[in-house]
Amino acid sequence: MNISLNSRVALVTGAARGIGRATAGMLARHGATVVLTDLPADQSELEAAVAEIRRNGFQAYAIGADVRRQADVEACVSATLQFGGRLDILVNVAGVHLYPAPLLTIDEAAWDRVFDINLKGPLFLCQTAIPHMVKQGSGSVINIASDSAFDVIPDEGAYGISKLALVRFSAYLCKELSGTGVRVNSLAPGWVKTRLTEFVRQDTVATAAALEGIPARKFAEPEDIAGVVLFLASELANYVNGHCIVVDGGRVAGQPA
């Protein structure tokens, strides 16, 4: 099936590596002009991601930004509009996971860091980017949550709670944008081969336990998640709005979303 995003412009956060990088590449290969953003400290990886996309003949740009800072977010959206002339797709990938972080002992700074990146960052991006989509009468926002939103895993409460909040945030935003032509969905990955999961994948016992709980019996590749983002960004998903798609090989199958 040929999915075309020609003339579309996409902004992807957390794009220096992992799901964000795979998503930017996937959208570019299907015709979108992509703007990749990540922390200034990750600029070298970000530039490498952009260079890889350009080597394959597609349009890509990089801009360093901290999604926790409103000024950075505004500069990022402004740069996207300058590069592409419009903004059609926003993918909020940037996130942080702390483990172990028991709820009764997690300190305020750690709690704030998780929620500032995982929830406030997407809020800032949506507040800044969506008005431009509304003016166009179209747009697709995809917020990357986690299947941890639908599970209870000891010692990662802050992460799971922040991702469940992101799922509900997406649903509320969908309702607020009724009639505008802008769709908002979330996507909840399970175990993916990224830096975020290295602490488990480097432990053979933990890896075996994790795989035992996944009917697919394997961890996802970042491209497996990027493919679902592509669907949500495309016209194939024109009637998908306000929902969370769980992409975890069946790990939380049957649990209420």
Describe the structure.
- This protein is of the alpha/beta class.
- The protein has a single domain, classed as NAD(P)-binding Rossmann-like Domain (Rossmann fold), CATH 3.40.50.
- The chain has eight helices and seven strands.
- It has a seven-stranded parallel beta sheet with strand order 3-2-1-4-5-6-7, with helices on both faces.
- α2 links the parallel β2 and β3.
Name a few traits of the molecule.
single chain; 257 residues; alpha/beta; Rossmann fold; 7-stranded parallel sheet; 8 helices; 7 strands
What is this structure's SSE topology?
Blueprint: E1 9-13, H1 18-29, E2 33-38, H2 43-55, E3 60-64, H3 70-84, E4 89-92, H4 108-136, E5 139-144, H5 157-176, E6 182-189, H6 198-201, H7 204-212, H8 222-233, E7 244-247
Helix pairs in contact: 1-2, 1-8, 3-4, 4-5
CATH class: Alpha Beta
CATH architecture: 3-Layer(aba) Sandwich
Query: What does the average pLDDT come to?
Result: 96
The overall strand count is 7
Order of helices and strands: EHEHEHEHEHEHHHE
Number of domains: 1
Q: Roughly how many Å is the radius of gyration?
A: 17 Å
What gap, in angstroms, lies between the N and C termini?
29 Å
Structural class: alpha/beta
Number of helices: 8
Short description:
With 257 residues, the protein is α/β, with parallel strands linked by helices.
